[in-house]
Amino acid sequence: MARKKRQSRKYTPRNEFRRNTSKTASGHFDYVFGETKTQYKSIGLTHSPTADRKYYPLTKNPNPKDDRQSYIHLNVRGTNKKFFKAPEKGWEFAKEDMPVVRHTIKQYKKSTNRKPKNWYSRKKSNKK
């Protein structure tokens, strides 16, 4: 009997910008990088950062019609699909900003695909 291959990703990849109208995002745009059956995995964008969250200043605004300074959240949020509008056309990150975006996504993948620290000891204690 063949072994079942472990799924490495818990979402299907996306590459788009959408407006997020949920309470947590309050109408800001998000960069959507993944999709599950009920949620989008995204990184938030804003013009005015707050002190209670970590942000990274972007070199160029992803919106081609806007010249104001923009920032991305350095954490990922999973939000229900019903809160997102249609994808924006012509939006993209600058080449200099992509390493930070990729690193944020990679960090999220690592945190979701890891086993808990005491998984082996819990497994042993359940056998007794």
Instruction: Return Rg in Å.
Output: 18 Å
Count of domains: 1
Biggest β-sheet description? 5 strands, antiparallel
Which CATH first-tier class would you pick? Mainly Beta
Quick take:
This protein has two helices and five strands. It is of the alpha+beta class.
Structure notes:
With 128 residues, the chain is α+β, with helices and mostly antiparallel strands. The chain has a single domain (12-111), classed as SH3 type barrels (Roll). It is built from two helices and five strands, in the order βββββαα. It has helices at 98-113, 119-127, and strands spanning 12-19, 29-35, 39-46, 55-57, 71-80. The chain has a five-stranded antiparallel sheet with strand order 1-2-3-5-4, with helices on one face. The longest helix has 16 residues, at 98-113. The radius of gyration is 18 Å and the shape is elongated. The mean pLDDT is 86.
